[in-house]
Amino acid sequence: MQQQITLLELVDRVLNKGVSLSGDITLSVADVDLVYVGLRVLLASVGTLEELQLRDDT
Amino acid sequence: MTTPDVDPTIHLYAICDGAPEIPAVEGVDDAALEAHVLDGLTLVISRHDRAIAADEAALVRHAAAVDAVAAAGATLLPARYGRAFPDEAALDASLRERAAAIRAALEHVAGCVELGVRAADPKRQAPRPDAQPPNATAYMRARLADVQQLERVAAGIHEPLAAIARDSVRRLMTSGRLELTAAYLVSTGSVDRFRAAFDALAATHSELAMVCSGPWPPYSFATLEDRK
Fold first, then answer.
1. Cβ A9–B122 below 8 Å, yes or no?
2. Given B51, B122, B180, B227, which residue has the most CB atoms within 10 angstroms?
3. Is the Cα dihedral B121, B123, B127, B129 positive or negative?
4. ipTM greater than 0.90
């Protein structure tokens, strides 16, 4: 689960943060949505933050 | 050699201060990293003969290349994924448009890494419009009190961590439950102290799921449009 959260954090940073110079935009909104949908499926398949917390408590 | 149907592009990974060593790692689509020097800055790029992918594997390769350059000791601003430049002239022109902000941001992040914090309370229930007391004013008061309570909890997490950091950004969602997402720019010498402070907060807030990620290159502090 920690690994999946790290991936979510990574994708969030790479797509939404960082220097954005005025080059040609090569990602469409649909592409970005697909990456996020992929991540949400990945996260849903392994649990939620709540389950991470429960695991950490045991 | 190019053919008429290819569309060459330059992909940018990071903008570095000075002339750091570029590690021999492969970037997106297995392309070699190159240094492109301009006005005392080094741009880490790769060249492609077609549009690069927008899948998770490509994003991870981009991030790994930025990590490798940062690990080699460069002070850098990571580039946002998803922009391409047709040639070096277009890249240079784009860089020069924002050169002053880039130099200021490089100075700001020098000697620091980014640490990310997420805190959430998945079990919490917000006041519901149909719950008792059953009138709009009482509901709004209950909702306001709920949001204020969430903001107090978030401040209790964020402020001690921000005090250790050179800079910080935070986003707080209070739509029924707490979802705090924050990034902290922390000097490399203070990372252990930051993690210890985070661990202490996580122990205090056993009702929350809390995660500290990083160290990252300073993605959240390289968004030039946010700079004051």
1. no
2. B180
3. positive
4. no
Across chain B, which has 228 residues, the per-10-residue mean pLDDT values are 60 94 92 94 93 83 95 94 89 92 96 94 69 74 86 94 97 80 96 97 92 94 70
**Whether the predicted pLDDT of A3 surpasses 70:** no
On whether any CB of chain A is under 8 Å from the CB of B82, the answer is yes
Alpha-carbon gap, residue B22 to B37, rounded angstroms = 12
Query: Which residues in chain B are closer than 8 Å to A28, comparing Cβ atoms?
Result: 54
In this structure, are B205 and B141 located in the same domain? yes
The interface residues of chain B toward chain A in range 187-226, judged by CB-CB distance below 8 A, are 206, 208-211, 213, 216, 219-220, 222-225
The pLDDT tens digits for A18-57 are 998 876 666 666 666 666 666 665 555 544 444 544 555 5
Task: Give the dihedral sign, CA B114/B115/B121/B127.
Answer: negative
Question: Which of the listed residues B109, B136, B168 is the one where a domain comes to its end?
Answer: B109
Bridge partners of B44, per DSSP, are B14, B35
Q: Report the domain count for chain B.
A: 2
**B182 and B88, same domain (yes or no):** no
Reported in sequence order, the residue ranges of chain B that DSSP labels E, i.e. its strands, are: 9-17, 34-38, 41-48, 76-78, 83-85, 112-120, 167-173, 179-187, 209-216
Gap from A57 CA to chain B (nearest CA, Å): 9
Residue B87 resides in a domain: yes
CB-nearest partner of B94 from A16, A21, A34? A21
Residues B14 and B77 in one domain: yes
Domain region containing B101: 9-109
Q: Which of B109, B137, B153 is the last residue of a domain?
A: B109
For residues B118 and B202, state if they share a domain. yes
